[in-house]
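Fold this complex.
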Amino acid sequence: MKRPPMLMHVKIRGKRRGFGLWLPLFLVLPLALALFIILSPLILIAILVFWPKGWRKRALHIFGAAFEVFNSMRGIKVDVRGEHRCIYISAI
Amino acid sequence: MDENKKKVLEMLAQNKISIDEAYRLLGALESGRSTSESTAKAGTAAKMKSKYLRVCIMPGSGHEHGDKCDRVNIRVPMTLIRAGMKFTSLLPPEARDKVNGALHEKGIDFDMRNLKPEEMDELLEALSDVEVDVAGSDGETIKVFVE
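Structure:
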């Protein structure tokens, strides 16, 4: 099984100022679960409303694919450096 | 049974070769097969090891504004590409028709509806052999490769 990313480092530097962020991605899944539990009544209503339209299968696929994309993000690195700007994104 | 083995046994049955010769020939056939299998396995393992797609753009040293040019260094995990390609199956039919139309306009005759998951795996496996190396007149280089 793929290990999900734990941290994301985002660094953006402009001409005058810049900032760096360490995003704790290991908190995303517990937060998403908590949000899912809180919103479960609304999700249930949405499922019942959209059931006849056949969107249920597509919605499940989207959730599955989004979860897999998130889990596969470990190791991604984007480093763009110019004269006055620098963008650095890395997931570890 | 293997065609070559059959031939050896037929030759033995017709007394064209001795038992020792047949034994040696069968042994040689076996070792030849195991060598080709191990070579194929090594090739597959090397492909499986490729983990990242890299895109590097470097300005040339002879460039007038060497430091002013953008340097790009991107590393994308192959697993992320594989996961992202699954989103193509979620495209609504109308969007696929639009994509097909746009591709057709550019002269690419490709139907997205024919793209199957197993073909995507083959496509990604083939991607591990891709290496693009472009050198510009000012010395800037663009490299796309899998590592």
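The longest helix of chain B spans residues 19-49.
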